Amino acid sequence: MSYEQLLQYVFSGITNGSIYAITGIGFNIIYNTTGIINFAQGEFLMLGGMTSITFSRYFPLPIAVALAVIVTAIVGALIDFLVIRNLKKQSILFMIIVTIGLSILLQEAALHIWDEKVRSLPFFTGDEISSINIFGAYISPQVLWVVLICSIIVAVLTVFFKYTATGRSMRACSSNVIAARLCGINSKNMITLSFTLSAAIGALAGAVVSPITQTQYDCGTSLAIKGFAVAILGGLGNSIGAVAGGIVIGLLESLSISILPLAYKDAVSISILLLILFVKPSGLFGKKEISALKDF
Amino acid sequence: MAYLEIKKLYRSFGGLQAVFDVSFDVEKGTINAIIGPNGAGKTTLINLISGALKPDSGEVIFNGLHIENLPPYSIAQKGISRTFQNIKLFSNMTVLENIMMGRHVRTNSGFITGLLNLPWSWKEEDSTLEKSRMILEQFKLSEFADRPADSLPFGKQRILEFARAMSMDPELLILDEPAAGLNMNETEELAKVITNVRNSGITILIIEHDMTLIMDISEKIVVLNYGEKIAMGTPEEIQKNSDVIKIYLGDDNAIG
Amino acid sequence: MNKKKYYPLFGLMAFIILFQLFSSFSGKEFLLIQLTMCAYYSMVIIALCTLMGYAGQISLGHAAFFAIGGYTTAVLTTLNLIPDKDNFFISLFNSLGFLSLRVNPYGIEILHFSPWIALVVAVVITYVISFIIGIPILKLKGHYLAMATLGFGTIIYRVLLGGKIFGEADGISDIPEFNIFNLLKINGDNADRIENYYAAWFIVVISMLLLINLIHSRVGRALRSLHGNEHAANSIGVNPARYKLFVFTLSAVMAAVGGVFMTHFSGSIGPGEAGVLKSVRYVAIVAVGGMANIWGALIMGIILNYLSLRGYLGSYDEAIFGVILVLIMLFTPDGIFKAGNFGSIKNFIFSKIFKKA
């Protein structure tokens, strides 16, 4: 493999990796406040992509994306408001099943609202043939958009969770719901907020990546598995870990294409997930003792 | 050689030394208590004995066998049964079925026998059922036999867990705070039951905060503080021990 | 011995016979075709119910085992060995009676493994795969187990979809019939549909019998105790790893057997059988039936699969399973057969309306 080819693979790995990282962070946000792994996380990306494609027919691109984020965020809030907070049995098994049900519902709703066609958002700048030469590799400007927006999301979330009262309240819920409640934090609203927030960032990621990977009603599932792989690799609940995990998985996946047929791309990243789960479920950056304390 | 020997047991969590150089012996057919303030490492110690945790170093010898590195189920098969501080019942099963689970180690029917319902398992099932009903009777739980285990009132759940541990026909019974949450009458009842169990030849290791109960029934007491054994002896000796008094009454009392 | 546990089996057999009589007399024998398919899918459902409902181990990849069974037999009974027929092993297999010769619709002679051998190989392969994957996977709990099984299912799906030998997206067709001692033929011929129907349900009844035995045995109790509280089960002498592995491999093999016969019945198989949506559908059916309720799972499996196969659910087929999952979890997490659950739906609706008002 030539140096330029390698670089090409690296850029494509980083692009996919950023998207996986955002999906992983979406998992983390909800997991941190509720202890739930939201199996419908991938559908937020799909919805974000789909709605922004539709809105882009009527509005300029930035407004279309903004509207898509808002719509998906509302869907996220509704999921909690209508379903999650009304669950009778909050055991992990039931939580898994209900979010899987939601994921199918969102997929099927998308299938009926749109159809099974593959769509994509126009490129933010330039078009599919425009490219930028970086160190000899030719990459689409959209790749820079993906990396830029994912970095902004991570930065904003970090500030939000560290320095705002609401963000700190959400973190308090994650460490101890009852204690948080005693301190006057409305844990129910925090859960709604976590679903809203993770739907919103999912939608944004789904829109920005749409020109490159394209969007289809059922593209959420494999994104969700990879996002989960990333979240686990980085240590569940650890967002900086998720970024690192995303880059690792994105790179491995894109390098695998040079060895294995493209059809096995997903199988590669999922095998990595299984391997991590079997060998070190606390993740590369998680502490074993801490993950043992969590109720798995 | 003693019946149960704990030798130089160590266990830490991260930087916290939960059990530090603890050694003691337990004689067959006696009631032995482990006491100490909260966080003294009592539960960690019995988790080490019952196999729920592995020690960093040290030995646990039961009936001449090293058990410190065995998993919980094989320690149970050796005749050690236990209860938990936060009751752990099979919530998806009835009271009777919980007791029947206690017979698991004393029965043999395997996978193929189960699938084919082979005739030789019938007798075993019958005797499991019979023995379990007897134990329900003994612990005055018969009227609840077919109720889901988690529908019982708290006190009864403790008794059920005790009964389940007894249905294993254990040689050594480990009780983790069996009186927690019980009222005075229930505690007195418990004291009688424990003494009866001992009289039937079963050795008992008990953790308890209720000092009256401990002083009444136990033959030997081990006192832990910050993971270390600070005293050991009969109830009379422990009551007179100045280190123990200091922990329980000392500094806090002076301030408060 | 308590015989009560077997009573529902007689009910099932009565239903099977009555339905056949009804369909024959009313001239609607074609209805049997979907019910035969239901029977084979039921194998996955009752197997999953034992694993998930009783032993408490979720599997979001059970369709993969069905597909492994189906694809094994599909590959072995369609792979033409004529070019290699002088190969030592092939001629050895041939003289042992492991192979059979047929002429396909295009008049080409095909020498292939006999379905019996394919069945045995399918069972062995499934057992080995589920055993190897089961050892690490069953150490996981909760979300981790769910994701790992989902991941496993997806890998199998991708491999089937991408593998040349598996026919890629088209799958494998032109699969020969499974002839059982010349008595029963598992195939898709309209002429044999009553025979096929009874053969399929015979397999289900036998499997139900085995599972009912298991559930009511010492081993079954131990499996349920793992669901109730794994720590307590461990401390009471149940080896969690051993019991979980047993129930996992058993339920995988049972699903694969369903897949083998289904493939001979329908004459073809496609990668969709291994898809995530299929796995989720099985989980949904077990959940509606009431998790630890093997009869509930079987009944709901028959009803829902039948409606779906007859096309009554239309383009909302998958969506309905999603709706079912959400509604069941919201209103009656212990399944639809739990007494008094209709009252709680009413209460929920009322509380929503009046709280706002």
Task: List the SSEs and their pairings.
The complex is a heterotrimer of chains A (about 300), B (about 260) and C (about 350).
Chain A: H1 3-34, H2 41-55, H3 61-83, H4 92-113, E1 132-134, E2 137-139, H5 141-163, H6 165-175, H7 177-182, H8 187-213, H9 220-233, H10 239-256, H11 265-279, H12 288-293
Antiparallel strand pairs in A: 1-2
Helix pairs in contact in A: 1-5, 1-6, 1-8, 1-9, 1-10, 2-3, 2-4, 2-8, 2-9, 3-8, 5-6, 5-8, 6-8, 9-10, 9-11, 10-11
Chain B: E1 4-13, E2 16-26, E3 31-35, H1 42-50, E4 57-62, E5 65-66, H2 72-77, E6 80-82, H3 95-102, H4 111-116, H5 120-138, H6 154-166, E7 172-176, H7 184-199, E8 203-207, H8 211-217, E9 220-225, E10 228-233, H9 235-240, H10 242-255
Parallel strand pairs in B: 3-8, 3-9, 6-7, 7-8
Antiparallel strand pairs in B: 1-2, 1-4, 4-5, 9-10
Chain C: H1 7-25, H2 31-54, H3 62-78, H4 88-96, E1 99-103, E2 109-113, H5 115-137, H6 142-162, E3 178-180, E4 184-186, H7 193-215, H8 218-228, H9 230-235, H10 240-266, H11 276-289, H12 294-309, H13 317-331, H14 341-356
Antiparallel strand pairs in C: 1-2, 3-4
The overall pLDDT of chain A, averaged over residues, is 85
Distance between the termini of chain B: 46 Å
What is the beta-strand fraction of chain B? 15-25%
- Which structural class should the secondary elements of chain B be placed in? alpha/beta
CATH topology term of the largest domain in chain B:
Rossmann fold
Could you explain the architecture of this structure?
The complex is a heterotrimer of chains A (296), B (256) and C (357). Chain A is mostly helical and 296 residues long. Chain A has one domain. Chain A contains twelve helices and two strands; from the N terminus they run H-H-H-H-E-E-H-H-H-H-H-H-H-H. Chain A has a two-stranded antiparallel ribbon. In chain A, helix 1 crosses helix 9. The longest helix of chain A has 32 residues. With 256 residues, chain B is an alpha/beta fold. In chain B, the strands form two sheets. A six-stranded mixed beta sheet of chain B has the order 6-7-8-3-9-10, sandwiched between helices. A four-stranded antiparallel beta sheet of chain B has the order 2-1-4-5, covered by helices on one side. In chain B, a hairpin with a 2-residue loop joins strand 4 and strand 5. In chain B, helix 3 packs parallel to helix 6. Chain B is globular and about 60 Å long. The model of chain B has no long low-confidence stretch (mean pLDDT 91). With 357 residues, chain C is mainly alpha-helical. Helices cover 68% and strands 4% of the residues of chain C. Chain C contains 14 helices and four strands. A two-stranded antiparallel ribbon of chain C has the order 1-2. In chain C, strands 3-4 form a two-stranded antiparallel ribbon. In chain C, helix 2 runs parallel beside helix 7, helix 3 packs antiparallel against helix 5 and helix 11 packs parallel to helix 13. Chains in contact: A-C, B-C.
